[in-house]
Write a structure and sequence with these properties.
- The complex is a heterodimer.
- A 5-stranded antiparallel sheet of chain A has the order 3-2-1-4-5, sandwiched between helices.
- Chain A is of the alpha+beta class.
- Helix content of chain A is 17%, strand content 31%.
- By secondary structure, chain B is an alpha+beta fold.
- Chain B contains 17 helices and 20 strands.
- In chain B, the strands form 4 sheets. In chain B, strands 1-2-5-4-13 form a 5-stranded antiparallel sheet. In chain B, strands 3-14-15-12-11 form a 5-stranded antiparallel sheet. A 5-stranded mixed sheet of chain B has the order 6-7-8-9-10.
- The termini of chain B are far apart.
- The mean pLDDT of chain B is 95.
- The chains are: A alpha+beta, B alpha+beta.
- Chains A and B meet through α2 of A and α13 of B.
- The structure holds protoporphyrin IX containing FE and iron/sulfur cluster.
- Iron/sulfur cluster binds next to loops of chain B.
- The site of iron/sulfur cluster has 13 residues of chain B, from loops.
């Protein structure tokens, strides 16, 4: 099962996703890190710029990824009750 | 309104400067997140699902128009144009940036507000009756007693590292609008044998994982001995409260383990030791504080009779206003629960409008209720129509106070990192569904939490809903029979849980059965449940 690396940007708290050479606000920019995830966490943690680094399980979906848990889908898109703020990676009604 | 004196202002300003420095050092990586996290929590800043969340303290839920306008400004300038009023009479902002927080806190401090002691194992923001100083049934304004406690306990080193968070509520009426039986300490102003005012002291209530109702440990405490006695309670708790297990650390567990009688005896013994130290301030101090809370001067000859020929207005007056101490006046509750909207959320524009109305018509005061609504406590009845028209135009004139669509809901999985399930969408669906019949249903309090922490008071709901995690899926338990009022009780789980559509259907079935069982239109759901028990409802839902 694919895994993605995510965290919250220190300065803003924004949810961000590892893209292979940087970080993006958009889930669908993420690359699967799979077994390399722990090593990336070990690399980024000491830099102290990203909070709550974590690996999450996803399934491939049209155009990108679908996180397995409701919690991670909400994190990726925004509050399901505020579609006006939703990020485009997943349709809000697919949360 | 309480006004900061030079000490209060100096403390708050110093805290903002200190936090500004801490944030700068964190942003420069001079301190680690591990070291910084407790510092930001001490200033009310949590990291939630989408961003930082800031919890701003609103002591006793009391605001003036200048402060409410500042809350609107903060929503616009630092957030996304709205805020969420909570069951602890605070406000939370959901989209805060760490790098902007020092400026935000400086703006707050300019109107005598702050965010400290909204997190951590300290004495949290003290809550009170939203109708304080206005309710026709009150003995005295409870807020000066709460304010004295606040001044004594704020940043008090002895109480900054309690075994666990500590929540106090104070009320001046026998009608309990502050849920005093569900707080760590609940205080109720009462008359003594000679007619003098004193306090009834309750300890050990709480919700969350292990819900319990508080026990009365003293029927009458003279006001002059008030702080010393509180200190004694906290000392016993500090000494014996469990620090080894976070789930057993609240004072309710200690009171339960020792037994209320033994706990009370230990408090009395501690108090006897403290008394000679003369901790209590002279009565003039309470009087000084009370003067700050004096209500506006209201005209005793304001007309009582008003034109109620507009039926929608008349209905709003009947449902959302309460009698005031002073004839010709009313207490207005502004519902933040229009069916389909997010319970407790208010936009910056709505806050500004309410601030304007408070300034023009309500003695410049606004209150936040634990049911996540706002109150204008001092309104002339002959201004009600003007106020209603303005509220109506802003979508704020929903007449549903204490009815089925006036639902308490925590932020749940839409915002909160601790959540198991979403609570807001359930509240929205239920409110829309029940709004049509709610006039017929009468008082019905539905309360929803997204996890066992119980921020949405589900254990105190006539109907309570608790979000749980079932193998990664959102699932909801249904509880019935709770109350957070003077007839407090803890709701009980009816049976197995449901998915999102299932829980809405189950509540519908419960209400359908109530309508066939109730003894008459005046018998509330809660009373019917208490009379007939859970069985008929179980049968309706699962049968
Ligand atoms: C979103 C961030 C929040 C976090 C991290 C949080 C965390 C918690 C936790 C851990 C508890 C259980 C404490 C214990 O039993 O010892 C709790 C209880 C509670 N929270 Fe929250 N909460 C949050 C939001 C809220 C909101 C939005 C409200 C108001 C709507 C609220 C009001 C309460 C109340 C009334 C309790 C019950 C107190 C008791 O145990 O008696 N909290 N919260
Ligand atoms: S009850 Fe749980 S989900 Fe709801 S706000 Fe509290 S901690 Fe979050």
């Amino acid at each position: 099962m694919p895994r993605l690396l995510t965290g919250n940007r220190l300065e803003t708290g924004d949810v961000i996703w590892w893209t292979g050479d940087g970080w993006s606000l958009h889930l669908n920019d993420a690359v699967a890190v799979d077994d390399g995830g722990e090593a990336l966490i070990a690399q980024f943690s000491p830099q102290e710029r990203i909070n709550d680094l974590a690996l999450i399980d996803v399934d491939p979906a049209p155009g990108g990824w679908r996180p397995r848990t409701t919690r991670e889908r909400v994190r990726a898109v925004g509050p399901s009750v505020r579609p006006d703020f939703a990020l485009p990676s997943l349709p809000v009604d697919a949360i | 309104m309480y006004r900061y004196d030079e000490y209060d202002q100096a403390i708050v300003d110093a805290r903002v400067a200190e936090f500004r420095d801490q944030v700068a050092r964190r942003l420069n990586n001079e301190i680690s997140e591990e070291a910084f996290k407790p510092l930001r929590l001490m200033n009310g800043l949590y990291l939630q699902l989408h961003a930082y969340m800031l919890r701003v303290a609103i002591p006793y839920g009391t605001l003036d128009s200048r402060q409410l306008r500042m809350l609107a400004h903060i929503a616009r300038r630092y957030d996304r144009g709205y805020g969420h009023f909570t069951t602890r009479q605070n406000i939370q902002y959901n989209w805060i940036k760490l790098e902007e927080t020092p400026d935000l806190l400086a703006d707050l401090a300019s109107v005598e507000m702050h965010a400290f002691q909204t997190s951590g194992n300290c004495i949290r923001n003290i809550s009170s009756d939203q109708f304080a100083a206005a309710a026709a049934d009150e003995i005295a304004d409870p807020r000066p007693y709460a304010e004295l406690l606040r001044q004594w306990s704020t940043l008090h080193p002895e109480f900054s590292f309690l075994p666990r968070k500590f929540k106090i509520a104070v009320t001046g009426s026998a009608t309990d609008r502050a849920a005093i039986q569900l707080h760590d300490i609940g205080l109720q102003l009462v008359h003594g044998p000679g007619g003098e005012i004193g306090l009834k002291v309750l300890v050990g209530g709480g919700m969350g994982r292990t819900p319990m109702l508080a026990h009365v440990i003293r029927e009458f405490l003279p006001v002059a001995d008030y702080l010393g006695y509180m200190e004694a309670i906290l000392r016993v708790y500090n000494r014996h409260g469990r620090r080894d297990n976070i789930y057993k650390a609240r004072i309710k567990i200690l009171v339960n383990d020792l037994g209320p009688a033994e706990f009370a005896a230990q408090v009395e013994a501690e108090w006897a030791q403290l008394k000679p130290l003369g901790l209590d301030p002279p009565p003039s101090e309470l009087a000084r504080i009370a003067a700050h809370f004096a209500p506006p001067v209201l005209a005793a000859d304001a007309p009582v009779d008003i034109d109620l020929s507009n039926p929608e207005f008349a209905n709003w007056v009947a449902v959302n206003t309460h009698p005031h101490k002073v004839p010709g006046h009313a207490i207005v509750t502004i519902s933040l629960k229009a069916p389909g909207e997010i319970p407790g959320d208010a936009s910056a524009d709505q806050m500004d409008l309410i601030a304007d109305l408070a300034q023009a018509h309500a003695g410049d005061e606004i209150r936040v209720t634990h049911a996540q609504n706002l109150v204008l406590p001092h309104v002339r009845r002959d201004a009600l129509f003007t106020i209603w028209q303005a509220l109506h135009a802003a979508g704020l004139a929903t007449a549903n106070l204490d009815r089925a669509s006036d639902i308490i809901s925590c932020p749940g999985l839409d915002y909160c990192t601790l959540a198991n399930a979403r609570s807001i969408p359930i509240a929205q669906k239920l409110a829309v569904r029940l709004a049509r019949q709610e006039a017929d249903l009468g008082e019905l309090k539905i309360k929803i939490s997204g996890c066992i922490n119980g921020c949405g008071h589900h254990h105190a709901g006539h109907v309570g809903i608790l979000g749980v995690d079932r193998k990664g899926e959102e699932n909801y338990q249904l509880l019935l029979g709770g109350s957070g009022a003077e007839d407090a009780s803890l709701a009980r789980i009816l049976g197995p849980g449901f998915d999102e559509d299932g829980i809405v259907a189950a509540v519908d079935k419960v209400i359908g059965r109530y309508m066939t069982l109730r003894a008459g239109p005046d018998e509330r759901f809660l009373d019917t449940y208490r009379r007939v028990g859970a069985e008929p409802f179980k049968e309706a839902v699962y049968g």
